[in-house]
Amino acid sequence: MRHPRRRLRWSLTVVVAVLAALVSGCSGAPPGPPVLTWYINPDDGGQAEIASRCSAASGGRYTIVTSQLPREASEQREQLVRRLAAEDSSIDLMSLDPPYVPEFAQAGFLAPMPPEVQARAAEGVVPSALNGVTWQGRIVAVPFWANTQLLWYRKSMVAPMGLDMTRPVTWDQIIQAAQRAGTQVGAQGARAESLTVWLNALIESGGGAVITGESETNPELVQLGLTAPPAIEAARIMRSMVETGVAGPGFDTQDEDATASAFQDGSSAFMVNWPFVWGQATSGVEEGTLAPDVVADYGWALYPQTAPGLPSAPPYGGINLGVGAYSAHPDLAYDATACITSVENTAYYMITNGNPAARSAVYDRPDVLAEFPMAPVIRQSLTQAAPRPKTPYYAEVSEGLQRSFHPVGGIVPGPTNQSAQDLIQAVLAKEALL
Amino acid sequence: MSQTIDRPTTGAVEPAARGTETDKSRSERRLGWLLAGPAFAVMLLVTAYPIGQALWYSLFDYRLTDPSNRSFTGLTNYGVILTDAVWWNAILVTLLITVITVAVELVLGFALALVMLQALKAIRPVLRIVILIPYAVITVVSAFAWQFAFDLEAGFVNSWFSWIPGVTENTAWFGDFGSALFVICLAEIWKTTPFISLLLLAGLAQVPDVLQEAARVDGASWWQRMTKVTIPNMKAAIMVALLFRSLDAFRVFDSVFVMTGGAQGTETVSFLVYRQTISRLEIGLGSATSVLLFITVVILCVGFVKLFRVDLSQARGE
Questions:
Q1: Which sequence ranges form a coiled-coil region, renumbered to this chain (chain A) (predicted)?
Q2: A360 and A165 in contact (C-beta within 8 Å)?
Q3: Bond from prior residue into A308 cis (ω within 30 degrees of 0)
Q4: Cys-Cys link to B155, which of A157, A251, B115, B151 (CB 3.0-4.6 A)?
Q5: What angle is formed at CA A411 by the lines to CA A409 and CA A417, rounded to 5 degrees?
Q6: Which of A384, A401, A420 is the last residue of a domain?
Q7: Residues A158, A301: one domain?
Q8: Interface confidence (ipTM) of the complex
Q9: Which residues from chain A sit within 8 angstroms of residue B179, using beta carbons?
Q10: Does the structure show a pLDDT above 70 at B31?
Q11: Containing H/E element for A273?
Q12: Is B65 close to A85, i.e. CB distance below 8 A?
């Protein structure tokens, strides 16, 4: 048997060796160019490919590695906020959902953007994307890709309805036409961010706004426009989707994917949805899971109008690039954004991952037009699109809207608007739970 | 009074033991502290510190993204919570889930424990593994599995069970409160019945065979033996199982988060804590909500112990 004291010495040696290894592993920078970590939202591998392209293009100045965030935008924000509140220096670049840009900027989580980067970021970008990265008159993030919803329709089902889809149509028109034809209109009725997207687009399209007066620092001074006529009209349209029966079964849990499925299988003749549905359908044909004539039957138009004659304000989404305030290499990170958001790379991203570019020039490229025949409509939609409420308190506003306007069948235009306004104001004043 | 009868058994032994403490018992006690001490210290570090911190933060108006404007507000956060209908609704929903799931799990768990106890020796290990598998599944994974099963688009439940009245191809299970709560409870029951059956199995195994034999000789039926011999002799195990599961069920979060996201009025207290702290980033209000959840669980625990006179030492077989 070994002597206990010798055993103790052995144990101590092992502990010291392990600690030394750990310490040496932690200290000092790894050899080679600085590594920039880009926190990305999950996609089909496009951002990782762009990261490796830009690493190669940097000529050894930096290497970009990607780190994947959760699937839901709200969960991406939760993770980033918690890390940044703890001054996490590992966040060099981050893919940010537009509604959270004001919150990040106001909290000081985004590194100050040099004027020349601001000028470059704004160059040739669609208006909604530019609006989405602007906070308090300054550009605080770099537009990467810009999303918008279109009105999709099945040509064969809509043709007998007598609607002229080459001209703008209203929500009332498509709801009535679908009701007469006994089909559905796809929209997002689930209690999720997509409900806020829909409600906001309806209100903005009617000439209103969820937030009519912003206060950057005092949430109690935020003014809401939820009881104004455009918001009441939005509530009426939402309610009529359910009342007329065109919302279909399971509307209260219907998200973008469920809407796309119902449209694909012919349950609905219309739907409002993001352009990912096109990529989904064309890959379905390539994989043999969807008949080619279904995709050939897809038609597209600008988002429906709330008020006849008033151009619609379609939803605006996408991803903007933020540079972490605690990054050790903010200059390199801003340099990297120039490469990531180049026309070449964003066109590649649009073609391979189905995410529309923020740069207008991309939509003129033949390779993009070949893959997305609706590219001109997407660009037009992005020109008209309106962002969701721009406020550092977006999470509260969006949750408050979802709580009040869900389920859609329970909306009473007027009283629901009033209760939503009261709830959000109480929540912002920290006088109510959410 | 029954309390005065109970007292001599525990009360009389302790002073005597204290008075005549031998070297052996002293060294045993020291060994006990040595063995449990580090774990106790770690527990203090990982539980007492966050609890203390939550208590402290609950007295502030504190937003994670705006730490410079943190201000002391005393008990204001508690006032906001306790006067909000959302809190009381969440309490009711949580109690409903707790009562339904624990009641069903107790009956099912008892049946499974009996099966495990009386199964043939050859198949006993396999049977135990099969019964315990759901408990080994991570709750969030199980919640997703149940959500997919009942999903309107991708689920199989609607097409398999359309012969049941009320179930059709278009039944939206997560579309209203009752059906959404039903699926949540089902997932919870499937997941945690094995835990309760394991605790009850331990209780069943402690019932002396001689008592069963004596009852059988006296001509007692199966039901009489169950109600007069088995259950009274494993009361402590049942109570411990009930207590553990009730406290666990009261903290239900994963299933609600995955299946409904709190929609259709299915928000539970834990979900409310999550929403204030993680979504709203209101650390003060969220901390106050979690402190209230903690207090509610403590009240439940003490209530259980007092009401049913749960004696944890009995469950250990002392």
A1: none
A2: no
A3: no
A4: B151
A5: 160
A6: A384
A7: yes
A8: 0.81
A9: none
A10: yes
A11: strand A268-273
A12: yes
For residues A76 and A134, membership in a common domain is answered with: yes
Q: Is residue A209 part of a domain?
A: yes
Interface of A with B in 2-41 (CB under 8 A): none
What per-residue confidence (pLDDT) applies to A404?
96
- The alpha-carbon gap from A263 to the nearest alpha carbon of chain B, in Å, equals 12
Task: Look at residue A170 and tell me if it is in a domain.
Answer: yes
Query: Using a CB-CB distance cutoff of 8 angstroms, which residues of chain B are in contact with residue A106?
Result: 65
Nearest to B143 by CA among B187, B106, B77: B187
Verify that A205 and A302 share a domain, yes or no. Answer: yes
**Same domain flag for A64 and A182:** no
| Tokens linked to A410 | 């329970």
Q: Are β-strands A138-139 and A134-135 bridged in parallel, bridged antiparallel, or unpaired?
A: antiparallel
The contacts of residue A14 (CB under 8 Å, 6+ apart) are none
Mean pLDDT (whole number) for A296-321 = 96
**Torsion sign across C-alpha atoms A171, A174, A177, A182:** negative
Shared domain for A136 and A153, answered yes or no, is no
Nearest chain A CA: its distance from B25 CA (Å): 27
Query: Residue B309: its pLDDT value, please?
Result: 72
pLDDT of residue B11: 39
pLDDT given at position B267: 94
Both A159 and A219 in a single domain?
yes
Chain A residues near residue B263 by CB distance under 8 angstroms: 190-191, 252-253, 406-407
Whose tokens are 């088995």? That residue is B230
- The C-alpha atoms of residue A109 and residue B166 are separated, in whole angstroms, by 52
> What is the Cα–Cα distance from A219 to B68, expressed in whole angstroms?
15
User: In the predicted model, what is the mean pLDDT of residues B49-67?
Assistant: 93
pLDDT tops 50 at residue B317? no
* Residues A121-134 pLDDT 10s: 999 999 999 999 99
Report the residue from A85, A258, A433 with minimal CB separation from B86. Answer: A433
- Report yes or no: B141 and B254 within 8 Å, Cβ to Cβ: no
A337 and A296, same structural domain?
no
A362 min Cα distance to partner chain B (Å): 36
Whether the per-residue pLDDT at A28 is higher than 90: the answer is no
Claim to verify: residue A154 and residue A121 sit in the same structural domain: no
Answer whether A253 sits within 8 Å of B263, measured CB to CB: yes
Q: Which residue in the set B66, B81, B172 is minimally distant from A433, CB to CB? A: B81
Q: Which residues of B touch A433 (CB under 8 A)?
A: 80-81, 84, 86-87, 272, 275-276, 285, 289
Q: What is the pLDDT of residues A342-387, one digit of tens each?
A: 999 999 999 999 999 999 999 999 999 999 999 999 999 999 999 9
CA-CA distances (angstroms) from residue A168 to A181, A237, A302, A310, A381? 20, 17, 7, 10, 12
pLDDT interval class at B311 (50, 70, 90): low
Say which of A191, A262, A407 has its CB closest to residue B261: A191
- Residue-wise pLDDT tens digits, A241-281: 999 999 988 899 899 999 999 999 999 999 999 999 999 99
Substitution target in A75, A110, A252, A253 with the highest count of B β-carbons within 10 Å is: A253
Distance of residue A191 Cα from the nearest chain B Cα, in angstroms: 6
In a domain, residue A10? The reply is: no
Task: Tell me whether residues A432 and B86 touch, CB distance under 8 A.
Answer: yes
Position B197 pLDDT exceeds 50: yes
Phi, psi angles (nearest 5°) of residue A318? 110, -155
Q: Is the pLDDT of residue A18 over 60?
A: no
Range of the domain at A169: 148-314+389-428
